């Protein structure tokens, strides 16, 4: 059996020659030219699902900051706020639609103060997203808009434990009679991380009275790369750790809309956060859209990812399509969006982007038309309309199709795989004989479901190893497969709508699942050329492999998945090259059902070791049961 892929074997974690009888021999063919691998191969697919945006990767700590709608997209309410009355003072809070903040934020929080007693206070608190995480050494930026009917005195802004211990406080000197933005820094002096905290705005002015209206009440921690309105730093970092090459956004279902009217509208996700109305996302809960088009593009800059921007293409989750004759305004809307992303500051939308703080046009290379349009019967005319208009305006943009049956040119096709372990393993060869006719492949979503799609399947070792087999097959064919992304990327602990997911988090911590570590190992150890591997004295399965080399580092990589319950030893031979006498192995292994969780976030993590190589090109390596391994060899 001969493959264009990697498959290496080493003595797991030990610096001695493995003398165990080999189950298979693998010869890595550095003596013959390999196929060039697309440098974009591994990246992320992102949409707000499983409460992963607001209260997740988007660093905003206040929940329901602008009363856009309630948690499930309905009439706004004051959920997550409570009255604060100390020392016998009395006040109440109300949702006020009679005093809107502006045209899009039509509800405000009104604090009615009856009486503030000497030494007391009146105000309100916000409980955040299952608490507010305060970490040693961090400073927090609080901001809000407020105006008052008659009270002109100071306001105290504080972060407090839920039992009332003040961790940090600062004072806004006065409140104006028309809406004004107040920004203040809070610097808690704490020795340990805590989350059981609330955010409070109050007045302690004796005899204060009257009404004060508030809106866009915000609290930000330091963000990833210190980006304003940016990412939760630990979540940004766990993404960065996989060295991703692309970012497919904003969906997924979440771009489509439950109906056309509720689609993701790019122009409602840009500009100052107080001008964004928010929307009911396709996953059944409110999206603030605080993380919008510009934030996603800046995230690509900060994580060094190529943006793959999906544009809405006239089809929504109610399975209704815009009629061909009516497409014009929607296609134009996408062109406006592209101008916002790529236009010079001399263009209308390029100038708008500049006014939002990013004068430099983004170097967008990839646009996807729709999402999962294989579910529709109308993609042919819709794809044609978008493809033709985009190509005319931006001939260099690479267009990605999400349905196969189109009569217009197809540059890239997005295939999705949510399958059982055996089906994923069977698809190791999926693209081996796929025509190389100029149309490249994006596997824009994939995940192994060991317990059926897509409700309760755990992200366990069996799933992770099947992912590793499948990804190895993609990598072996990465002269054709240009992009591959696991989906969904994130889940908030206790809020999963879809399983498995790559990364879990709660208010305090973030953790990779076993499939995450496979992604990290496969993506961070990237070859530029895929090498043929000849197998002898054994056959494919339970070991699956891909091999490659990287010119800039003179390295050879062998990635091997053992999709089985017994360890397997392979005799590895490198033909056409000699490597240093010591290799490095990165091995992820565990029990078939093992996974990571909030209680045990590092139950399964990769282990890095060294192993010896005899004579510059030969060694045995034993791959543990249910394992995914990367072996690194340094060419001499
Ligand atoms: O990843 C979850 C969902 O799966 C995506 O939103 C959709 O594209 C697919 O059906």
Automatic annotation (TrEMBL):
| SUPFAM superfamilies (UniProt xref) | (Trans)glycosidases (SSF51445), Galactose-binding domain-like (SSF49785), Glycosyl hydrolase domain (SSF51011)
The residue stretches assigned to a coiled coil in this entry are: none
Pathway the protein contributes to: Glycan metabolism; L-arabinan degradation
Q: Which UniProt keywords apply?
A: Glycoprotein, Hydrolase, Signal
What is the recorded name of this protein?
Answer: non-reducing end alpha-L-arabinofuranosidase
Q: Which GO terms describe its biological process?
A: arabinan catabolic process; L-arabinose metabolic process
The record lists the lineage as: Eukaryota, Fungi, Fungi incertae sedis, Mucoromycota, Mucoromycotina
- Which Pfam family name is an example for this entry? ASD1_dom
Record's signal peptide: 1-22
Family per record: Belongs to the glycosyl hydrolase 51 family.
PANTHER family recorded for this chain?
A: ALPHA-L-ARABINOFURANOSIDASE 1
* Enzyme class, UniProt record, top EC level: hydrolase
What region holds the Alpha-L-arabinofuranosidase C-terminal domain? 444-627
Q: Which Gene3D superfamilies match?
A: Glycosidases (3.20.20.80), Golgi alpha-mannosidase II (2.60.40.1180)
- Reaction it catalyzes: Hydrolysis of terminal non-reducing alpha-L-arabinofuranoside residues in alpha-L-arabinosides
Which InterPro entries does the annotation name? Alpha-L-AF_C (IPR010720), ASD1_cat (IPR055235), Galactose-bd-like_sf (IPR008979), GH (IPR017853), Glyco_hydro_b (IPR013780), Glycosyl_Hydrolase_51 (IPR051563)
GO MF terms listed in the record are: alpha-L-arabinofuranosidase activity
Q: Report the EC number(s), separated by commas if there are several.
A: 3.2.1.55
């Amino acid at each position: 059996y001969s493959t264009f892929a990697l498959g290496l074997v080493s003595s797991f974690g030990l610096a001695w020659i493995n003398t165990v009888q080999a189950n298979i021999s693998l010869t890595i063919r550095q003596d013959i030219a390999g196929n060039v691998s697309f440098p974009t191969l591994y990246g992320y697919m992102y949409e707000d699902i499983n409460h992963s945006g607001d209260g997740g990767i988007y660093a905003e700590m206040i929940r329901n900051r602008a009363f856009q709608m309630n948690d499930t997209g309905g009439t706004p309410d004051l959920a997550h706020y409570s009255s604060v009355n100390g020392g016998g003072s009395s006040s109440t809070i109300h949702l006020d639609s009679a005093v809107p903040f502006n045209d899009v934020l039509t509800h405000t929080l009104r604090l009615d103060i009856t009486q503030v007693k000497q030494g007391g206070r009146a105000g309100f608190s916000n409980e955040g997203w299952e608490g507010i995480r305060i970490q040693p050494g961090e400073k927090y930026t609080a901001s809000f808009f407020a105006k008052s009917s008659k009270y002109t005195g100071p306001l105290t802004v504080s972060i407090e434990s839920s039992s009332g211990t003040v961790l940090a406080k600062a004072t806004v000197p006065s409140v104006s009679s028309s809406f004004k933005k107040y920004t203040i820094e809070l610097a808690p002096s704490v020795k340990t991380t805590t989350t059981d905290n609330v955010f409070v705005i109050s007045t302690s002015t004796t005899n204060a009275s009257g009404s004060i209206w508030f809106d866009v009440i915000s609290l930000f921690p330091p963000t990833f790369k210190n980006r304003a309105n940016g990412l939760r730093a630990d979540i940004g970092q766990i993404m960065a750790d996989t060295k991703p090459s692309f970012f497919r956004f904003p969906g997924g279902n979440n771009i489509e809309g439950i109906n056309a009217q509720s689609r993701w509208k790019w122009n409602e996700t840009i500009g100052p956060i107080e001008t964004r109305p928010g929307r009911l996302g396709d996953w059944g809960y409110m999206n603030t859209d605080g993380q919008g088009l510009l934030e996603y593009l800046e995230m690509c800059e900060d994580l060094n990812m190529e943006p793959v921007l999906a544009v809405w293409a006239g089809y929504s989750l109610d399975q209704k399509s815009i009629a061909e004759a009516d497409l014009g305004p929607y296609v134009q809307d996408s062109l406006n969006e592209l101008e916002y992303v790529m236009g010079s500051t001399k263009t209308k939308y390029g100038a708008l982007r500049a006014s939002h703080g990013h004068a430099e046009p983004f170097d967008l290379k990839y646009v996807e038309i729709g999402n999962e349009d294989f579910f529709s019967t109308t993609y042919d005319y819709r794809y044609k309309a978008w493809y033709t208009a985009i190509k005319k305006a931006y001939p260099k943009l690479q267009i990605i199709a999400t349905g196969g049956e189109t009569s217009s040119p197809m540059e890239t096709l997005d295939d999705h795989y949510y399958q059982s372990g055996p089906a994923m393993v069977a698809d190791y060869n999926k693209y081996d004989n796929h025509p190389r006719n100029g149309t490249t492949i994006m596997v824009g979503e994939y995940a192994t479901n060991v317990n059926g799609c897509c409700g309760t399947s755990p992200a366990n070792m069996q799933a992770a190893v099947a992912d590793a087999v499948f990804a190895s097959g993609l990598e072996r064919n990465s002269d054709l497969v240009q992009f591959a992304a696991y989906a969904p990327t994130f889940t908030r602990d206790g809020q999963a709508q879809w399983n498995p997911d790559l990364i879990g988090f709660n208010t305090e911590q973030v953790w990779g699942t076993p499939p995450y570590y496979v992604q990290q190992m496969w993506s961070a150890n990237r070859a530029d050329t895929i090498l043929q591997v000849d197998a002898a004295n054994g056959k494919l399965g339970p070991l699956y492999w891909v091999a490659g080399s990287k010119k800039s580092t003179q390295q050879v990589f062998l990635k091997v998945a053992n999709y089985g319950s017994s360890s397997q030893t392979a005799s590895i031979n490198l033909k056409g090259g000699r490597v240093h006498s010591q290799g490095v192995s990165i091995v992820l292994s565990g029990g078939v059902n093992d996974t990571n969780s909030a209680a045990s976030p590092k139950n399964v993590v990769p282990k890095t070791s060294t192993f010896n190589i005899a004579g510059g090109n030969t060694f045995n390596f034993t791959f543990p049961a249910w394992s995914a391994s990367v072996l690194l060899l340094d060419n001499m």
